[in-house]
Design a protein that fits this description.
The chain is an alpha+beta fold. It has three helices and six strands, in the order ααβββββαβ. It has helices at 2-16, 25-39, 98-107, and strands at residues 48-50, 58-67, 70-80, 86-88, 93-95, 127-129. It has a six-stranded mixed beta sheet, covered by helices on one side. Helix 2 (25-39) runs antiparallel to helix 3 (98-107). It is globular, with a radius of gyration of 20 Å.
Length: 145
Amino acid sequence: MRTTSLILASTLLFIAIPSRAQITRDQARSLVQTTLKLRGDKVAARQIQETTNNVPGYYSFGAYNQAQGVQNVVGWFAVNKRTGQVWETTNCDLYQYPALESRRRKLVKHGAKAKQKPPCADGQRAHVVKKRSSRAAAELPEVAQ
């Protein structure tokens, strides 16, 4: 009887405490790929590699593309393990495109947003990006010949 009461009490305690569920590495990588696609970057899934940056509470990725045999960095990203929020860490941009938010909410069963420090350099201010920029990403000035 005592064992049954103990099991029942521990089960109720487990249910009452909100779960600290995390998204998986593969889910985080897919959120980065979705972000890149929505930004207008053409990056294959195999070119999104996990990095050795150790930011507590985040998965870290680098995105690359190949141009004439040279591997170019498209961006450095951090994905919050609990919320699935995608950050571009170089500019401290938090991406909240509607399609990305919809996909993120399907993966994360709780509605909590991150209350932890953004994965950006000290002194950087966070920017929220909700829609794609109207100017082309590859728009560069012509070089005088």
